[in-house]
Amino acid sequence: MHDAKWEFVHSQVLASPVMASLQRAKVYAPHVTGDQRKQLRIELTAALRDIGSRYSEPVLASQHERHIVELAQRISQRCAGAIANRRLRLGIAQKALNLYLKYLWCLGRIPTPPHCPFDRRVIVHAAPSTQVSWTQIDDLSAYRAIVKSAVASAGGQSLAEWELRVYQGG
C-alpha cells in the first residue's frame, strides 16, 4: 500500500482501539479536562504504534503479557492526572493493544497475534461463569485465567481466529 494511503488507514486503525478501550470504561479521573483527555489519547496512540511495531515477527504470549504491562505503566506514568486512581488498568491496556493487533493482523501487516481482544462478549463466551469485567482486570493472574479459558474454548485454534468467530456470532 502506498505510504500516504497506509498512513491514512493506519490512523483509522489506531483510532478505533483507543476509543474502544476508553469509552464506557471509567478510565478518566474526576474533573479531568478536555486537554488531559486529548493528551491521554495521543499518548495511547503513540504507545500502541511503538509497541505494535514489535509484532512484525511472531511474539510469544509471555512477551505479549510484558507488552500489556509496559503499555499500562507507560500511560500511567505519562498521564496519571487524567486517569482514575492514577493508574491505567491492565484490562484497558490489553483491550487497546489486542484490538490494535487484531486490525493489523486482519490487514495482513503482522503475523497472528498471541491473544485476542478480551471484552464482555469474548469473556462470557470463554468463561460463562466468570464475573470478571474486562474494564476491571488489574493483575496478570486474572488476565491469564481468562486467556486460559479462551484457549480451552478455542480447541486448538489460535485465539485470534477463535475470537473472530465469537465476535461475528459464530
Explained architecture:
This protein is mostly helical and 170 residues long. The chain has one domain (3-167). The protein is built from 7 helices and no strands. The chain has helices at 3-22, 34-52, 61-79, 90-106, 120-126, 140-154, 159-167. Helix 3 (61-79) crosses helix 4 (90-106). The mean pLDDT is 95.
In short:
With 170 residues, this protein is mainly alpha-helical. The chain is built from seven helices and no strands.
Describe the secondary structure blueprint for this structure.
Blueprint: H1 3-22, H2 34-52, H3 61-79, H4 90-106, H5 120-126, H6 140-154, H7 159-167
Helix pairs in contact: 1-2, 1-4, 2-3, 2-4, 3-4, 5-6, 6-7
List keywords for this structure.
170 residues; mainly alpha; 62% helix
The helix/strand series, from N terminus to C terminus, equals HHHHHHH
Look at the helices and sheets and give the structural class: mainly alpha
Backbone shape: globular
Distance between the termini: 31 Å
> How many distinct folded domains?
1
Residue-averaged pLDDT: 95
Largest sheet: number of strands, sense, barrel closure:
none
